[in-house]
């Protein structure tokens, strides 16, 4: 039995000089010396032209941001001019409710604009179909073989979807590849340079809310600013020039709003029509091209719900859904491999591009 104070560790024999030299302790390196493999997130390696912020939680489009910066600065300028003059006058002289409603509408417009600009519009995942069915022979002109399209049944109609060579996947119905962002976007309506982002399934409701709130806010600014300038001249018995000098903020807000309200109202009217018909901007442009190139009526819309009320409710009240991109997530290894049997001699492609086994 070993005494508890006696160690079983081997020790060195005494040296000729009778100096005891113990063995060095068997210690592990400190944790700080262990190499740490840095984790990468999806937004750091994602092959697109989008700009990511806040560790991938926010994103914008891949084109120039100056149009968005100018439009956002214009919204802030109109709001600041109205708050500094008209809003203060209404609060102290007429009705604080007008100022409160105006403040709420301005905040709603700004928040919807930012949500449209920095939200994932519905970017589709890449590399879902890395090995699509191809024609057995190359085209006669020597071009690249294009993967076969797919025909999907939507209610009573057939919708043909194409393969995206960039994203390596078949695009769902109503999806399109944006060349400015270099992404396939689900239910893509268009790419809006004024918000520097694509308008798709996940931010189309915010876009429509932004247009509606912007038009209502501009009308409120125009009316309250005009009434402010009119009452200044009537209550203080001054001419119109002096009224402009005393209410310079109202004059600036009125002038800028008059210039902006017309194109924004036209854009709202255009998208209201699209909402009632349940079609996207891209589909509307294709229908116009169909009328120009092919005589006769265009094919029916398979996505309509039969009435404008149902179409309006389906587009505006549908859930945005989760983000397939999930740019903030940690990158994981893709362990998928192409079935080796597809490349062996025992397999062939039929006329429809479907892989099938051949008889042995």
From TrEMBL:
Reactions it catalyzes: L-cysteinyl-[protein] + hexadecanoyl-CoA = S-hexadecanoyl-L-cysteinyl-[protein] + CoA
Region called Disordered, residue ranges: 340-360
The family this protein is said to belong to: Belongs to the DHHC palmitoyltransferase family.
GO terms for biological process, alphabetical: protein targeting to membrane
UniProt organism field: Boletus edulis BED1
PROSITE patterns recorded: DHHC
Predominant place of localization: membrane
Record carries keyword Cytoplasm: no
Protein name: Palmitoyltransferase
